[in-house]
Amino acid sequence: MAEPINSWPSGRSKLMSAREAVNRFVNDGDTIYSGFNIISFALTDEIIRQGKQHLKAVAGSVTPNVTMMSIAGSVDRIETGYLSGTLRSKPFQEMMRDGRVKWNDYTNMTITLRLMAGGLGMPFICANSFLGTDYLLEETMNHSRSLKEDRRREDGSIAPPYAVIDSPFDGRKALLYPALKPDVAIVHCQRADEEGNVQVWGPRADTKWGLWSSRNVLVTAEEIVPRSVISTEPHFTVVPGFKVSAVIHDPWGAHPGGLLGHYRADRAWGELTGASMTDWNSARKYLDDWVYGTEERAAYIAQYRERFGDEMLEALRVKDFMVPEQPAKYGWR
Amino acid sequence: MMIVATARQVRDGESTIVGMGPPLLSAALAKYHHAPNMWYCTESGPLDWIPTSRDLPAPLGIADHSLVQGSAMSGDMVDALGAFVNGGWAQSAVLQAAQIDRFGNLNTMLAGTFEDPIRRLPGTGGNADIGASVGRVISTMPLEKRRFKERADFRTTAGYIDGPGGRGEAGLAPQGPNTCATTMCVFGFDTEDGGVTGSCEMVLEQLFPGVALEEVQAIVPWDLKVSSELSYMDPPTAEELTLVRHLDDGGNHLIPGRY
Fold first, then answer.
1. Residue ranges per domain, chain B?
2. CA dist list (Å): A307 to A41, A44, A273, A304, B23
3. How far, in Å, CA of A291 to CA of B140, rounded?
4. Which residue among A256, A262, A322, B216 sits deepest, i.e. has the most Cβ atoms within 10 Å of its Cβ?
5. d(Cα B130, Cα B125) in Å, to the nearest integer?
6. B48 with B71: CB under 8 angstroms?
7. Residue A302 CB-half CA count within 13 A
8. Do the Cβ atoms of A129 and B129 come within 8 Å?
9. Rounded CA gap, A132 and A302, in Å?
């Protein structure tokens, strides 16, 4: 069983390797949050290497790292609003068609709100997004590859994925969505300290509530900084250290995705390596070569430098930094 | 032409949520061209993007890093789709979709059915969230038979649903005037009050120069209503075309020969 988060005494370093973090905190059958803002491909690779199974991926939008985990046999269920880039993969389409991957559809906002409800300890949350649409049809909610079994109640009946009620306050229609409380969250961030104070900037999408709602948060950080760096710009912290279970120092941890202020997405990557997983052959070859064939992120980056040269990697680095014209004045006396 | 026709639907001074794909380019064109004071917002969190330089290309995605530089706020989805759109502060939206139907409902989910899909699509993203609550919708897609349906294969995003009163019965507020800009023409909808009265059907309002009414009618599979004030759209100006080409630096948005 995964350790409860509060087994860490406050202030103790949670710095560890991706291997140790995944081994300790990711269990077969877990619901895993991996959002579409800053994707930890470093942790994605490690989950695949350790052969984790029957994971359910949840996020406002799921991204190609969920394609990889599905094809590798780690993810077999999905709840999301958008399959971002994942349908480029024929194997992934095939798995959705034949039921090896089961799913229910939501939206970017309703998944984020469901995570928020989970984070706030609410049983459900209200949003009107599906009123007047075909999401409310029985054949959508309980289609043959839907997550009916995940919704089975103790008495054997199937709970709906969302439900319309008449508001007890004014009698108007209201649409309820159940709270989401993932077992584990994986994310990459610009910087964190050893205790797990996570700082993220840029469009934050569903990140904040993905991290607040998940029982264990595993974070790969581009930079590990002292607490003093965190505390002089505390407004960048998305979750405080006590919420985080593992901190991994993995530069280039979001590659081939981008990281604001550090590097751009590597758009040539999929074509060069088969990472876009368009067919079974390229998918297996990619996984063998770049996931099973590397032990950790540093080895993956070393292999990249060796095959494609330093220049190609370095060309992705952000060079034109935005500098505050007038830094915010902090201070109180 | 479709990009320009869509951009012309964007009004100066309006708060606008901009969706993935061609809308990012159309809304950027509007902002650079005739609507400098529209609020350019995307669902991942950047609110009120003002390009820091006229040399910047249009964003490639709704979470493009270029959107951070020049935005008034870098929030998240609860801010953007929750407070801004569902809170009622977004006056308009520019959305792409795979299909639209007679009553302006959009489909971004699939062609066919869940059990027998012809093609599964990525899903709604924020499209459904926006369609439920935004003031008016500017949709955009090529005019093609597979896209224009009497009833969308899957209604992901509520337009006027089944006609007058549809939105009210479903529990949604009125919306409009909605428009749909295509590769041959611009459609409006037959309702003066956001879907309470009128037939709420799609109405042909503007033809692109050189396009005949019959060509549009041949593609739309139902008996298409035509506005009594049907007009020809002014051709794109040199300035608009120069801007589009500049904003689509690298050709990431425009597929040659299509838009």
1. 2-247
2. 19, 22, 10, 5, 38
3. 40
4. A256
5. 10
6. yes
7. 8
8. yes
9. 52
Which amino acid is it at B176? Answer: G
Would you place residue A8 in the very low, low, confident or very high pLDDT band (cuts 50, 70, 90)?
very low
- Taking the alpha carbons of A291, A293, A296, A300 in that order, is the dihedral positive or negative? negative
d(CA A160, CA A29): 21
Q: How far apart are CA A87 and CA A94, in angstroms?
A: 10
What does residue A92 show for φ and ψ, rounded to 5 degrees? Answer: -65, -45
Distance (Å, whole) CA B14 – CA B10: 8
Please indicate whether, in this complex, the C-beta atoms of B43 and A116 are within 8 angstroms of each other.
Answer: no
Omega before B177 within 30 of 0, i.e. cis? yes
Chain A window 131-170: which residues touch B at a Cβ cutoff of 8 Å?
131-135, 139-140, 143-145, 164
Cα angle for residues A82, A83, A89 (degrees, 5° grid): 170
DSSP secondary structure letter of residue A156: S
Residue in B closest to A63 by C-alpha? B122
Contact B129 A80 (CB under 8 A): no
Say if residue B87 is exposed, middle or buried (CB neighbours under 10 Å; 0-12, 13-18, 19+): exposed
A205: left (phi over 0), alpha (psi -120 to 50) or beta: left
Which tens digits make up the pLDDT trace of A173-230? 999 999 999 999 999 999 999 999 999 999 899 999 999 999 999 999 999 999 999 9
Report the predicted TM-score, pTM, of the whole model to 2 decimal places: 0.95
Q: Do A254 and A41 form a contact (C-beta atoms < 8 A)?
A: yes
Closest-CA residue to A131 (of B133, B13, B254): B133
B117 CB neighbours in chain A (<8 A) are 97
Residue A41: pLDDT over 90: yes
Q: Where are the alpha helices (DSSP H) in B49-170?
A: 77, 127-133, 166-170
Question: What is the largest distance, in Å, between two alpha-carbon atoms of chain A?
Answer: 65
Element (H, E) at B40: strand B39-41
Position B259 pLDDT exceeds 70: no
- In single-letter form, the type of residue at position A95 comes to M
Q: Compute CA A207 distance to the chain's CA centroid, rounded to the nearest angstrom.
A: 8
- The Cα A281–Cα A288 span in angstroms is 11
Just give the CATH number of B2-247. 3.40.1080.10
SS3 B138: strand
By the CB < 8 Å criterion, does A91 face chain B? Answer: no
Task: Give the pair of three-digit tokens for residue A140.
Answer: 């959508």
CA angle B42, B46, B47 (to 5 degrees): 85
| Interface pTM, i.e. ipTM | 0.95
Closest CA to A35 of A213, A210, A245, A215: A210
CA gyration radius, chain A: 20
